[in-house]
Design goal:
heterodimer; A: alpha/beta; Rossmann fold; six-stranded mixed beta sheet; four-stranded antiparallel beta sheet; 31% helix; 29% strand; B: mainly alpha; ABC transporter involved in vitamin B12 uptake, BtuC
Amino acid sequence: MTLAARALDFGFRGRTVGRSVDLELPGARIVCLLGPNGSGKTTLLRTLLGLLPPLAGDVVLDDHPMEQWPARERAARLAYVPQAAESYFDFSVLEMVEMGRMAQRGLFSQPGRGDRESARGALQQLGIEALAERPINRVSGGERQLALIARALATQATHVLMDEPTANLDFGNQARVLDEIARLGGSGAAVLFSTHHPDHALRIADRAVLLRHGGVMAAGPTAQVVNSENLSALYGRTIEVAEVRSADGCLRRVCVPSDPPVG
Amino acid sequence: MIISRSRFPLWLAAACAVLFLLVLWSFSVGRFPVALGDVWRALWSAATGGQSGLAANVEAVVLQVRAPRVAGALAVGAALAAAGAAYQSLFKNPLVSPDILGVTAGCALGAGIAVLYALPTGAIQALAFVGGLAAVGLVVVIGTWIGGRDPLLTLVLTGVVVGSLFGAGIALVKYVADPYNQLPAITFWLLGSFAGALPGDLPATLIPLAVGLVPLVLLRWRVDALSLSQDEARSLGLPVAALRLVVIVCATLVTAAAVSLAGTIGWVGLVIPHAARLLVGAPFTRVLPLSLLLGAAFMLAVDTICRTAFATEVPPGVATAFVGTPVFIALLAISFRRSA
């Protein structure tokens, strides 16, 4: 139950985006992918999902190279959560989640009662079953993101890859989506998510991978890797990692950029 | 909040009932009115093979004159609406339809060339299909090449341009056509009409129609996934490129069947899927069956009014434009004000 990249070069034909990436996503772990704009986060995710062929090296899913997996069996193990954009057509939340069931069903199948129940179960798991019949374009951005996560759950995949699931969300919704990702990891799924907020890694990720110019700058347990020195190098300006004691007495680590130079 | 899913069977039943009544009405009205009871008796006896006991001329009007026309209108309406719904999902674009993508013009050019060379019905169909595929292929290639920030608008404009290119081809066909025999036939047929429908024409329309519709019906749930981003659809395990090709070929085949029978009838493929979506929500699994029924009903109603309401027949293709144009302008306003 592992997704791994081994000496992976990724990108497009004629344009290599990243080189020699090693990465592992074991079950029941949350891995956070950090990196500045243009560092290759999305391209790496697409390669790990099997949507882009590796330029060199391997992506390995459950001990088999990605390209050996038939598309449908791959989809039943590996789910993708895109950024929550508006849908072209106004499906209901339940219908959107139900589409995740296609990963488990034959090409000519139609959604049946079992699929509907799985979809409702996924909505329940994320606490948004009340939204089932609402049009997907008329719920909040955070709720739409949760619906897409529910769709990934409905595929029953063991690995869920999320492309900036907290982008374009307000502060409260970011926290809500992060909570659900943390619970997902707790329930045994392997989650890889990319983000622009190192705070999000500190909050829920077991491990962090820092991507710079398409290469892994640092990787390891979040507490060790997401530190002042690495973040400053990653984002090109001084960033402190401060400790804050919250009201319940827990020690939390947060990132604070340095003050702008005065004068 | 509206629960569209639970209302679907209701709308389906309502559409069936309306369609049934429209068919009876369409059989009974016209220059030679036939009582509803006689219509029923003639149809029933034709279906069961019994004797109707009606006057021969009444039976002839129902079975020989009106039946092909009614069946043709039903088939063409259903075909254009289904093709429109499929194109809209496939291109993730609520503004497209067979006519806006230039597919009808492509089919018309192919069929026009076949008429020009006095080819048989099968060849008319085949060339219409080839013309339609060429048009949609050009639109996809040019639209992808242009790219741009607003793919919705790019696709629509490309369709308009390709449509007018094929329109020029049609003009050329008309120009070189024999002005006494071929030209009137081509012109009349291009206006969009069921007046020329003969009982023998129907199988040639219904067979490609069925061949195109069956894959669309079987794949109807997958068509919904095609309206997601390509990465999402592929991550659900779907063979996206193959599915897109199948849907394009099927929708074009269905359009070609309609155009070969009745010429270029616009707007049905745009308006009907939108009406269906308003009633039962976005999923193609519900939009497709309802579009088939509503398209058939709409086309039959328009054709029946066109042949009875005025002293001379009005081509239904002209009438659908009067309905379709304002609807398209409204849709344009809605989608661009929302994205602005």
